């Protein structure tokens, strides 16, 4: 199966175009005001039109309520909901029933103990995203440029596809794929020249490196 490459936190037409033209499989849009990558519904509507049919559109939310998610779904028409907060298994089940969309749940990882809730989430989610656990004083749960010990995932046995994120860049994506054998990689800060400011060249470099890592993983 091909490695899925997701560029997250896109906010402008030019960086979205760079991701699409370089062959990103998924493009992520952040709906979380504390994030420097937060996108308005107006901008999301236009970006979503540009991405339609070219890559899967992913809507990232953090403990959002139903009306908020409903507005996002109506505006962006996402292909996938990415839940990056403390959403429970029951909450995810309810969201899937209400909105009829596949869900990817982010699991924050720092130690092996963080993988304990995995089985419950795997029962209800369509995908799992392993991300570095944010510091306790962080104002947002991800996109902080921190990695985690990828070796922790070597003992994971999932019947759901999973992706890896957290501090990825063109320089380390090959190692991340080699160690984790993940089916996908997700990058945000690793393709930015400043917090929340994506760089078209870095986006292209990352996707190129991810495709090279994919080729190495099947050899």
Give descriptors for this structure.
8-stranded parallel β-barrel; TIM Barrel; 7 helices; alpha/beta; globular; two-stranded antiparallel sheet; 219 residues
What does this structure look like?
The protein is α/β, with parallel strands linked by helices and 219 residues long. It has a single domain, classed as Aldolase class I (TIM Barrel, Alpha-Beta Barrel). Helix content is 34%, strand content 21%. The protein is built from seven helices and ten strands. It has helices at 13-21, 41-51, 66-76, 89-99, 118-124, 173-180, 200-217; strands at 4-7, 26-30, 56-61, 80-83, 103-109, 127-132, 162-165, 184-187, 192-194, 197-198. The strands form two sheets. Strands 1-2-3-4-5-6-7-8 form an eight-stranded parallel barrel, surrounded by six helices. α6 links the parallel β7 (162-165) and β8 (184-187). α1 packs parallel to α2 (41-51), α2 packs across α3 (66-76) and α6 runs parallel beside α7. The longest helix has 18 residues, at 200-217. The relative contact order is 0.17.
Q: What's the story with the biggest beta sheet?
A: 8 strands, parallel, barrel
Evaluate the radius of gyration: 16 Å
Dominant shape? globular
Task: Identify low-pLDDT runs.
Answer: none
Number of strands: 10
